[in-house]
Amino acid sequence: xxxxxxxxxCAHYYPRHVxxxxxxxxxxxxxxNIRDSxxxxxxxxxxxxxxxxxxxxxxxxxxxxxxxxxxxxxxxxKSAGVDDTTKPFIVGIIGKDPFKSLLNQLYxxxxxxxxxxxxxxxxxxxxxxxxxxxxxxxxxxxxxxKIIELTRQKPILTVxxxxxxxxxxxxxxxxxxxxxxxxxxxxxxxxQASLYMSHLLLKEAIIVDSSRGWE
Length: 215
Prior knowledge:
- Helices cover 29% and strands 20% of the residues.
- The protein has helices at 10-13, 24-32, 37-45, 59-71, 102-106, 144-151, 165-168, 187-192, 199-202; strands spanning 74-75, 89-94, 117-122, 133-136, 157-160, 172-177, 180-186, 196-197, 206-209, 213-214.
- The longest helix is centred in the N-terminal third of the chain and has 13 residues, at 59-71.
- It starts with 9 loop residues before the first helix and ends with a strand.
């Protein structure tokens, strides 16, 4: 069913090439190739996962694609060196890997910020300092405070999908609700990391501020 709350024309925004009858690899390529910012936000925030033909195991395919898509709406400070395309964009995963090495498959050819992607699987929190994006696994609940203490005020985009992590200082937290992926943004944490977020991203998010709680 079309959702016209925001005035979108569903026939224009719905990607027929991401529907049923295509392999998972073809679907992933199609998702990465959605370039228009408004179209991408509409597809992932208004339509459900099942409308793309994904079963439940496809949740982390979508979340893996989200990582790159988020970066299109975020600017890192010059000091972070993200503009230097001779060096990789480093994605770290700390704790138990919920993607089950899927990120290596997703980002073999796909770039982030026009940089090749290097995925690092971390166990020691002392290794997170070189990351541009850090996915914090649910397994890290017992040491989330220590991780945030190390990433706070550093230009590292922290992402998770664990209940309550946004309130602990994680910048973006993914939620699965009614078979749709939503996300929280901790604006205070983003400011501390000197990461600039587009209003297009912020207006679609559930805003959480760890200094004041829920808004």
